[in-house]
Specification:
Its EC number is 2.4.1.-. Helix content is 73%, strand content 0%. With 325 residues, it is mainly alpha-helical.
């Protein structure tokens, strides 16, 4: 890709007014984007120890980047790092040999360095702030009931459960609310399934798909979370269906914007005009926006899945070379 073209795609992040607005109102998303981009660069440049340190630091800074650990670990295979194709004998190897092959030095270094960095920073913060640090940094996410400016379909449920009376009833019944289980499909998709299927094909695009899924399925979805996946668009868009097919790309963009417009119109009626729009207005607009996001996620996954994995490509090249010889 030429420097001029690369700069054009990078402008999606660098010159985006949404990024500038959110980053100047007290949010740290822009700074987090620097850490995540540095993490991606370190992995692709095979700066293994630095990758682990940046991963541990990013997760400490804001917890969601932990989803990238699975993709990075899965991406760091011996065939990729050594630059040769996979052998047929690997399929017939014993389970013990396969485990030893999986636990290569690069994966161990990333795991150990990220864990040590994460634990060291947490210990320092705990010594400085005590239990409130753990409560507000980690445990709060399991019970949070943020419903303001929340595009998620869980918005209405969170609103109903945020009242003191609802909290007292929930405590008395010791019941596990539906909103507390929302992280199960979210993490299964973003931290397990997508990395296993896609990461060896295109790591940057896989991280985009992970982040998009994490935000779309999150029980709290606000505008600042969109920045989490927008930073990956310059890596994905050049060869994407969204640009190759104008009808698909324009339709996806229009629907993504309209999903927010419908929700914001209902939110305006609620907060400024005092009209109760929780049911059905906000709820239906949240579902519509969720469906749009799932559709875009499907396009991204299909694009990445259509790419040949690096190991398959190396194996095919090696096989062709042997036939020519």
């Amino acid at each position: 890709m030429s420097q001029e073209r690369a700069l054009k795609y990078a402008s999606i992040w660098l010159l985006n007014p949404m990024v500038a607005t959110i980053s100047t109102r007290g949010s740290s998303e822009g700074l987090l984007g620097v850490f995540v981009t540095a993490l991606l660069w370190a992995v692709l440049a095979q700066r293994i120890a630095l990758s682990g340190i940046l991963l541990g630091f990013a997760v400490h800074f804001k917890i969601y980047p932990f989803i990238y650990a699975a993709s990075i670990i899965w991406w760091l295979d011996d065939d990729r790092l050594k630059g040769h194709g996979s052998s047929k004998s690997s399929s017939s190897a014993t389970i013990g040999n396969q485990i030893l092959s999986f636990l290569n030095p690069q994966r161990l270094i990333v795991a150990v360095s990220s864990l040590l960095t994460f634990m060291a920073l947490n210990i320092i913060m705990y010594l400085a702030y005590g239990w409130p640090f753990l409560e507000h940094s980690y445990f709060y996410h399991l019970i949070r009931t943020d419903h303001r400016h929340n595009f998620s379909p869980y918005n209405t449920l969170l609103y109903l459960n945020s009242s003191p009376k609802a909290n007292q009833q929930a405590s008395a019944q010791s019941s596990l609310g539906l909103e507390r289980l929302a992280f199960l499909p979210q993490l299964l998709l973003s931290a397990v399934l997508i990395p296993l299927v896609l990461s060896k094909r295109d790591l940057p695009a896989t991280m985009l798909a992970q982040t998009f899924a994490f935000v779309a399925f999150n029980k709290v979805c606000t505008s600042q979370y969109f920045l989490w996946y927008m930073m990956f668009l310059p890596y994905y868009l050049p060869e994407s269906t969204l640009l190759r097919s104008r009808p698909v790309g324009i339709s996806a963009l229009i629907l993504w914007v309209l999903g927010q417009v419908f929700w914001l119109q209902q939110g305006f009626q609620l907060e400024f005009n005092g009209h109760s729009t929780f049911v059905l207005g906000l709820w239906l607009s949240g579902i519509f926006f969720f469906i749009v996001n799932v559709g875009i996620l499907g396009i991204i996954i299909r694009d990445v899945k259509s790419k040949e994995s690096h190991v398959e490509e190396l194996h095919a090249t090696s096989t062709a070379t042997k036939k020519q010889a």
